[in-house]
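Tutorial sheet, problem 5. The two components below are modelled jointly, 1059 residues in total.
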Amino acid sequence: MEKKNRPNKFGSFTSRTSETTSSPRSPYSPLKVNQRSESDTLPTLEEDELHDHDIGQVSEDIDRFTDALSAVDDKSDPPEVPDIVETFSRILDSKIAKYNSGESTTRFFKMTEEDLLFIEAVRRISKLTNAFGEFPSSSTTTSSHNRTSMVLQRAMTFMEDEFRALLEDSWSSDSSSTNLKPYSSFNNKQEGSDRCAIPEIESTGDHDEFPAYPPEVLTKMNRIAAAMVSAGYETECCQVYTIARRNAFQEQLKRLEYEKLNIEDVQRMQWEPLEGEVARWIRLVKYCSAVLFPGERSLAESVFSDSPSLSKSIFSNIARAVAIQLLDFAEAVAMTKRSAEKLFKFLDMHETLRDLIPAISESHCSEEWEKEMASEISATLDRIGAAAMNIFCDLENSIRNDVAKTPVPGGAIHPLTRYVMNYLKYACEYKDTLEQIFQQNSKSEGEENLQSDQATSSPFSAQLLVVMDLLDENLEAKSKLYKDISLRNIFLMNNGRYILQKVKGSPEIHKGMGDNWCRRRSTVVRQYHKNYQRETCGRLLQCLSLEGGLLVNGKVCKQVVKERFKNFGVTFDEIHKAQSTWVVSDEQLVSELRVSITGLVIPAYRSFLGRFKQHLDNGRQAEKYIKYQPEDIETLIEGLFEGNPLSMGRRR
Amino acid sequence: MPATDNQGSFLNRISIRRNQVVSMDGGHEQELEDLDLFQKHVADRFSDLFSQPPQQPSPDSSAESPAPDALLSISWLRKLLDAFLCCEAEFKAVLVMGRDPTQFSKPPLDRLIPDLLDRSVKALDICNAITHGVELVRNWQKLAQIAVFALQQQPIGEGQVRRAKKALNTMLTSMTLDDKESGHGKSTERTWSFGRRGGGAASASVNKDRTAGGHFRAFSLSFAKSWSAKQQIQAMSSNLVAPRVGEPTGLALPVYIMSTVLVFVMWALVAAVPCQERTGLATHFPVPRQSGWAQAVLGLQEKIGEEWKKKEKKGIAGVLDEMQRMEKAGLWLVEFAEAFQFPMESSKADEVAAQVAELADVCRRMEEGLVPLQLQVREVFHRIVRSRAEVLDVLDQVGKLTSPVPY
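Model answer (structure tokens):
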């Protein structure tokens, strides 16, 4: 940025009498400046004449005159204007001309003392001009007023250009290229200012710091802004600043690969590419909440540190334009055709947007802007929320419409169960957000759960229960597809167990469904187990019953014993053959089932065997009718529910 | 959002009334009556807008300020948006409230509703472009304000005159650039092009090369590059077909009326407010001459169309009443500033004061009107979004979710 060194550019201010004692009023000390280099001068002004003046003395005189002017009560009677006014005007003119003749882009290389002097001088001339302005137009001061206001205008034009150059150059040299090297939190380096450390943000890669201006540039901008505002050039100053910063903000968005999409374009996009845009948007909004907005705010605060109200309105202007742009995208996405897969991205957007609100209210912006933005954001939040809620409620219809014609082989967990439960589990990771959304949009149509003892705390929990009940109904209907009652119960057990485990495995769903619900479900699942047990073991135990002609008048009927043993073997084979192909994927459930069969069948078989084996004629007969020893049964039971149609053959 | 609440209660009232009536004497007559009422209200509202005396601003006699709601003035636009919001609420009541959803899946609605939804999406993009355009006008207003502030000081000296000239030059340059560039496909790179030094003086600036690059890139991101207001309006109006006379039209008529109102309002906004790519904007679109409700719309269309033709012919920057006045006074004052010598001739003083007063009046109206206008455009935006959602809800009920569970 620095092109060449021109140490003497403020020569005209310092005068040749460098030993002058400074006036107590002037805020600067006398300067030790090298000899003026003649090459610097402009031929347009009679420099030599000017340099016969001591700037300190001139300033002091000007201040005195300004005070005197302001003190005049009768504004129709202006005092005589001393020559010093013209001299001072010329000094400034010459200085501005010299600045303007420079070739570098930022002509205030460093905020040297000379530059500070210039700014002081500009303040002085603006004060003087104001004092002149209080006198009527026909008075003797008019031409002096004209003179000083012209100088002031030149100075302001120069400052405006300077301000713009600083705003644009110091920024764009950092951010326009790919190798962004952000200055570390500029606001910490600034003198006496330790406000608002920029919060960290994750997942924005290497863009996590606000690309700030170097501290010395900041100081310069602050001085220029203060001078312009105090001279009444506030509007110009704000315009330059706002436009430059708006552009810079857009640059930032561009760097984050944010591309503005029209609402119509968004409607036409496939979900897959749009999902990518949404992800980008989420990153961007997070970055805005955490870095860009706070950074932009504290930048405005440091540049316009003298006028907090100005910095607020400037920041709100910049932020508003960006925020609306971001909101429009969210609106556009929320308007797209809804589908189940979009739910989680919508909820992500909802949460991201919600977190944007504190970035705005923390900023202590003017109330008007806060109100407008808050209502804009909440309108968009409502829309995304409503869309998310509708998607979630669509699950109801999807379940209702899922009518299967063929049962799942082996009574295994139905894909619908898996889908719904995983969807719910994932959705419940957003439980707080969903609760909030449901609360706001809670349906008036009376779809509430009416079971009094299940009275739920929230509309979302109610919706969860509705979904669960529907799923139950649906599974109940699907279970009817199994002709085998044992298998039907296995199916119900499998699915019921899966649902329970999913609910218990997720604290959020668990909370949503409540303990009572879980207890009730466990009971129901146990009932399925009992039904199964009764059905399967019942058939076996029937063979081992003492009823049914086994004892005739207290005598054992051998024929019946033979039949019973034979039937037992056949029945068991049937059960084993069938149930080995059944599927129980939950290990614990498998072992529970096996234990419960073993526990019922084995003791009964053992005692039957012990009591009636002797009634078979001999060893040969025993071998013929007693196919299995209790130990064999036990082993075979271990092979049930493997879901393996070959297990029988292999074991043989 | 206050708008939401109002609307909600309004619709509720209507729905209650409708339900009561329907339950008393069958729906059909009531429906016809509602339709008549809707047409009548559209006609009334637009006649109101039309009957405002379309007074031309005359800066030469600016002691007499033009009517506050002259055609295409900010306050007129606000009335137009008000009228739109009212018509829209009523339309929705006719279309959605108490309606048997199956009607949406039968002719003619099955064909008309998708068109309606498509048009409303296009209207949303236009609303956004307008919001952006109003923002631009607000910036011009600030520049004009600088000039007013400078020239209201007494006495007027060279400093004040130069200050005013600089600001006005920047304003005028930006106005022309905006208008010119938006016609040449460069629109995305335009808009926030406020010259470094204002107007032609920019070349004097130290780094003129960057001036162009730095300022012209500007707000390019706020709109997709290919978007064109002109084409949007064209697309919105191209499939506007009036239901054939003599046919039992049923709901086709209100849908057609509302669509025409929507297209008209968007068209008027695009004409009035700076907007991406609007050169060659159509000056009219078909409106049935014989219908009572359409008379005022037609009249307005003609007037605005004339204004637009004038604009394109004369090369002035805007059709918005205040912008025209601003441009005119601005040009006059710049000319004055070019020739200015201190001290000002007293003969000139009155004339300058009059122009400054004119500019001040425009600034005041903009100050009062632009932010509310912007908010109102947002309100229209939100309303359209909401209505679209409501119509989709009805459609949902018809097609009651055939989407299977994607397991």
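Marking note: The first strand of chain A starts at residue 551 and ends at 552. Full credit if you identified this.
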